[in-house]
DUF2653 family protein
Amino acid sequence: MNGLVLSMDEIINAVCLHMASRKGVRPSEVQVELSWDEDTGYTAEVWVQGRSQYLVEANLMEAILRYLETEYGIRAYREEVRLELDEEIIAVVRR
């Protein structure tokens, strides 16, 4: 496999699944808003049970790597995944 691109929706799904697992709630109970800023880079604001939490890029990568393994059966390493800003935020996986 040469590469894979995860859409913004898939990144949001990855974060929802990851946070649901960590917080012991259903993925449908997690809301995620991804963003990019020149100062902070890629971040996400996550709402679980009415509480807001900010995730930095390292947290997003942890969720994406877990998603790649559970949904695609791909054991990727951090250095193989890069977040990019196209018309939306995407994750490019190099294999």
User: Anything to note?
Assistant: Residues 3-94 form one domain. The chain has one domain: 3-94. The beta strands are 3-6, 30-37, 41-48, 51-55, 81-85, 89-94.
